[in-house]
Amino acid sequence: MLREYAGVAAVCRKDRSDFSVYLLRLAEREILDREKRATERRIKEANFPVIKTIDTYEFSAQLRLMKRWFGSS
After folding, report:
1. Cα separation, 29 vs 4, whole angstroms
2. pTM (2 decimals)?
3. At 23, which helix (H) or strand (E)?
């Protein structure tokens, strides 16, 4: 929250948001940051040899296997 409070305050000031909206936005950012850090910590603790994401997945290899197993239909 310490990192984000000034930026959120500036946005809320510009939007003329009240204090409850400011607190809500600040809390939402804190929750997102905690979730992100928890995910990063779990990945690090898992000691994966390689980190893979869906954007690096080789779908064409899966399609070749499916065609081999089920025919080319």
Report:
1. 8
2. 0.65
3. helix 19-46
Looking at the predicted structure, is the pLDDT value of residue 61 above 80?
A: no
Q: Which residue has the tokens 């009240």?
A: 18
The angle subtended at Cα 34 by Cα 28 and Cα 39, nearest 5°, is 130
Positive/negative CA dihedral, 22, 28, 31, 35:
negative
27: its two tokens: 């809390």
First CA to last CA distance, the chain: 55
Residue 25 — φ and ψ, nearest 5°?
A: -65, -40
Question: How many Cα neighbours within 13 Å face the side chain of 71?
Answer: 1
Could you give the CA distance from residue 9 to residue 48 in angstroms, rounded to a whole number? 39
